[in-house]
Amino acid sequence: MRVVIGIVIVVVALGIIYWFIQRRREWDRIGADLNMTGNVQVLDMSVSNGKAFINFAKRLTNPGKIIGVVANEKQEQRLKGLIKEAAVADRAKAVLTDVTNLSFADHCFDYVIITGLQQVKPAITRGRVLQEAVRVLAARGTLAIIDSGNMQRYEQLLEYYGIKNISVRKINGQKVIVAKRI
């Protein structure tokens, strides 16, 4: 019986490790697919655990910069710790601000990334988040929305906000809306 339990624990642990490796590859692929490298300005509007944010930061070269929007001071301190640990402080920054009223100038980011938009409640607030993303997106900038649902609604809202070049891609099994301002 102990042997069976031990085998089950090992299999579960290997499954979890495999899942984390696949997620990291997924984010690397998304960054590569968007050609997010070098001296570009990136806004990550939905930093969660910070791993994707750090992966994106590693793709940049100074003076390129990624700014991660965080919702509270605890998350801000955690992200600052990750930035320091990954040695990307020259090109990554955590900012505590409201995603429905960003504290950035118009058209200042080459890339804007939003993940987990379906978690924003109430649903009407998602439209406001997208409106702010479009506002800060530079001319010829790219907006990427990584989400598990509501893609058709997001496309409709982006068209309403004046974004015309919109495609839905599947990158490593993840649906991604890529919208380019032209």
Automatic annotation (TrEMBL):
<dbReference type="Pfam" id="PF13649">
    <property type="entry name" value="Methyltransf_25"/>
</dbReference>
<feature type="transmembrane region" description="Helical">
    <location>
        <begin position="6"/>
        <end position="21"/>
    </location>
</feature>
<keyword id="KW-0812">Transmembrane</keyword>
<dbReference type="InterPro" id="IPR029063">
    <property type="entry name" value="SAM-dependent_MTases_sf"/>
</dbReference>
<keyword id="KW-0472">Membrane</keyword>
<dbReference type="InterPro" id="IPR041698">
    <property type="entry name" value="Methyltransf_25"/>
</dbReference>
<feature type="domain" description="Methyltransferase">
    <location>
        <begin position="42"/>
        <end position="141"/>
    </location>
</feature>
<keyword id="KW-1133">Transmembrane helix</keyword>
<protein>
    <recommendedName>
        <fullName>Methyltransferase domain-containing protein</fullName>
    </recommendedName>
</protein>
